[in-house]
Amino acid sequence: MANKSSSGARSPLSLVVAMALCYFFYVLGAWQRSGYGKGDRIAAAVNRQTACGGPDAVAAGLSFETHHGGDAAAATANASAAAAAAAAGAAPEFAPCAAALADHTPCHDQDRAMKFPRKNMVYRERHCPADGERLQCLIPAPPGYVTPFPWPKSRDYVPFANAPYKSLTVEKAVQNWVQYEGAVFRFPGGGTQFPQGADKYIDRLGSVVPFAGGHVRTVLDTGCGVASLGAYLDSRGVIAMSFAPRDSHEAQVQFALERGVPAFIGVLGSVKLPFPPRSFDMAHCSRCLIPWGGNGGMYMMEIDRVLRPGGYWVLSGPPINWKTNHKAWERTEADLAAEQQRIEEYAAMLCWEKVTEMNEVGIWRKRPDPAAACPDRPAVRTCDEANPNDVWYKNMETCITPPAGAGELQPFPARLAAVPPRISSGAVPGFTAESYAEENRRWERHVAAYKKVNYKLSSERYRNIMDMNAGVGGFAAAIFSPKAWVMNVVPTAAELSTLGVVYERGLIGMYHDWCEAFSTYPRTYDLIHANGIFTLHKDRCKMEDILLEMDRILRPEGTVILRDDVEILLKVQRTAKGMRWKTLMANHEDSPNIGEKVLFAVKRYWTAAGEGSESEEQKNTGSSSEE
User: Fold this and answer.
1) pLDDT, greater one: 229 or 194
2) What is residue 15's predicted lDDT score, i.e. its pLDDT?
3) For the chain, which residues make up each domain, given as ranges?
4) Element spanning 465, H or E
5) What is the CA radius of gyration of the chain?
6) Is there a contact between 368 and 348 (Cβ–Cβ < 8 Å)?
7) CB 415 within 8 A of CB 506
8) Which family does it belong to (predicted)?
9) Is 414-603 in the same CATH topology as 190-366?
10) Which pLDDT tens digit goes with each residue over 436-489?
């Protein structure tokens, strides 16, 4: 089973050290105070809390370890009681949702999906509830939930209790997707087109696609299944963004994220993918059931949009090598031949070069020089895009994205620290090479300060990490580790569209509107970081809705780090107390008189079965089980 840890009683020496630090920081805080304004009083109070250990401080037991069970409150307030408490000035307390909602995905609800057209998979796209329909309760973990195994063990094993769904073990038994072995699921690494394992399949692709040397870093895996391709690319220094719909293949994306592989719920349907142009070094489809030969080539044009110049497109399965496989695929030769002919024609329209066709795998390459002539291209419309990064809920079109100066990328990991072409070319307003470098140094200082509060940031404790307002990826770069990955989200409300810079660094992410639910299952992230997210959305949507969504996607005993104005964080801290979070407010690392503060929080462990209950006294004091 997953690792368990506990903490014993503190030694007398540690208590003496804590008291000494308390006195030192109290004196330091008093010396640093410059007046008697509200900001100074708050700064002094935060100083005392951080040093001496208010109820939620590190010294008093705010733990970033995992314990798998036993210090959560049993909330009893319902929605009306929470509203009454808020009106009375007390912290609102959110009740647990029904146990049946343990895997609730608000924007991918199955009942709501069936009300939408099936053409172009519209019904599998995002369809979010109206404001009045949003749940105002806490999504419970299933009974017996435990923290996932650390990477890389999580690649191969997932605790059964975390995603108790066996259907894929039967449906995909021959293809070696997943096997049920008592208390755990085991993932042998197989897939529809690689039942003998992803490693051997990647070796075959590697004879054409240059995975070695860091030249191919970012991969888009469409219709990913349980994301075994991405899981096995990881050891080669390649990071894959995988997606699949929430459909009859139960829990496939949930399994991917439980394994520690980047993934989201999505489909190539009628709207554009949530990525900027020129994001990926390779796109991949392994029998993903996307009709590439349909809709006038629209889906291949969307892949062309997000593929970098010189990038590769891999199509594995029908209709490639149809002459040999048409009987096994139970399709006529004429049907398969026509489909492949259309795909070949669309590839030529996009000026892709067909590199090879080996067995059931076809590989094309987008031309490296976007400005190079394409004399054989038939007449095709060029997309008219005033803002090519504006893709959120925008319909796909049958047109070709115009070429843009891409610039040369260094191999990874050098590209992580190099100045991205979008910065050096001036494509991001307000950023120069110098200001970009200073932005990265700023985040290095921030992360260094985080680690003084939470030393687990340097360990294998956190695998799936989200940055809710990523900017140019400074946080992800500063915290970078081969043992973790960061979903860098650039909000649609952000002033600058910087996601292209994130991808040019060899990182991954997506656009999202935080007034809606994220396209993922509950309990899929170990750590959530958010810089200024509440200030950014204060006039757009409710703080409580954003916090409830954070709670939904955060794992039990997961960690939250929030940077924002102190007045906003005080409101967040008050609300978090009714969400079964333990919190710690910390000053800005440069000075306690700076209005920007940092709020650390840990989500308590509790499940739908009532596991993780605590005493009323513990609930009122906010103390942890370690105390």
Assistant:
1) 229
2) 60
3) 190-366, 414-603
4) strand 464-467
5) 25
6) no
7) yes
8) Belongs to the methyltransferase superfamily.
9) yes
10) 999 999 999 999 999 999 999 988 999 999 999 999 999 999 999 999 999 999
Residue identified by tokens 């593929």 is 307
Phi, psi of 597 (to 5 degrees): -125, 175
Phi-psi region of 142 (alpha: psi -120 to 50; beta: other; left: phi over 0): beta
The architecture that CATH gives domain 190-366 is 3-Layer(aba) Sandwich (3.40)
Q: Tokens in use for 135?
A: 């749940």
**Cβ 327 vs Cβ 335: under 8 Å:** no
Degrees to nearest 5, angle at CA 626 with 621 and 627: 50
Instruction: Give, as one character, the DSSP assignment of residue 51.
Output: I
**505 neighbors 411 (Cβ within 8 angstroms):** no
* Residue 563 near residue 528 (C-beta atoms within 8 A): no
Lookup: tokens for 44: 């002094």
**pLDDT score at 215:** 96
Token pair recorded at residue 212: 């070695």
pLDDT digits (tens, 9 = 90+) for 284-305: 999 999 999 999 999 999 999 9
pLDDT tens digits, 371-429: 777 877 777 899 987 889 999 999 999 999 988 866 889 999 999 999 999 999 999 99
d(CA 444, CA 559): 19
Q: Is 460 exposed, middle or buried (0-12, 13-18, 19+ CB in 10 A)?
A: middle
Q: Nearest 10 degrees: CA dihedral of 54, 56, 62, 64? A: -140
166 contact partners, CB below 8 Å, separation of at least 6: 180
Q: What is the CATH number of domain 414-603?
A: 3.40.50.150
Q: Are 244 and 220 in contact (CB under 8 A)?
A: no
Query: In the structure, how many helices (H) and strands (E) does the chain have?
Result: 21, 17
